[in-house]
Amino acid sequence: LVGLSGSGKTTIANLIPRFFTAQQGDITINDVNIADFSLESLRKHISYVSQNIVLFNDTIRANIAYGKQADKSLEDIIAAAKAAHAWEFIEKLPQGLDSPIGQNGSKLSGGQRQRIALARAFLKDAPILILDEATSALDNESERHIQQAIENLSVNRTMIVIAHRLSTIEDADVIVVMDKGKIVEQGSHQELLNNQEHYAKLYKQSFED
To answer: Which of 24, 99, 103, 186 is most buried by a 10 A CB count?
Structure first.
């Protein structure tokens, strides 16, 4: 999902796990309306990683494995951290996974916080993954790590990615362009560039920025 700020991208992402309810139209998964799933069942099958990561004043281990994931094994937690490219900084900390991260992760950098959030998604192992600008406002090195983690996470999953940097979604199966709450264009990266319309303008602007 791409488009200018306020075009409705996050609204669509929030409708899928039913954070709020669509007033008209249907959202279906494998032709089943999401309203027909129990809320627990629907959200069990979705991982959501937003740009506003919520972390707890606890250890790294507790922040990766919390809620219904709290009983996961140490091996599973480490595997999730490695897949999210988080283990490379975690293992260097004196207390490793048992390192406290401070209020809302105040002892971590922005890139480290995002990688903890992605490790959560790996550990949950849900078939649907929603990423809401998960690489925004990061330095190039952090973004490179997180992009690699996202590529790892995309295997055998449906991914819905809200992208700020269009270079990160060029390989998407379908790119949906939004404007003022409406879908105005959709197709592959090359198809949309060839159209020379909304996406092509956004893509050109992204390099000028």
So the answer is: 99
Which residue's structure tokens are 């790892």?
152
Q: How big is the CA angle at 96 (ends 44 and 121), to the nearest 5 degrees?
A: 20
Cα end-to-end span (Å), the chain: 19
d(CA 25, CA 28) in angstroms, rounded, equals 10
In 3-state terms, what secondary structure has residue 171? coil
DSSP output for 133-167? STTTT--HHHHHHHHHHHHHHTTTSEEEEE-SSGG
Q: How many helices (H) and strands (E) in the chain?
A: 9, 8
The pair of structure tokens assigned to 86 is 């988080």
Per-residue pLDDT of the chain (209 residues), as tens digits, is 999 888 999 999 999 999 998 888 999 999 999 999 999 999 999 999 887 888 999 999 999 998 889 999 999 999 999 988 899 999 999 999 999 999 989 999 888 898 899 899 889 989 999 988 876 656 677 777 777 777 777 888 899 999 877 877 888 899 999 999 999 999 999 999 999 999 999 988 877 65
3-state SS, residue 187: strand
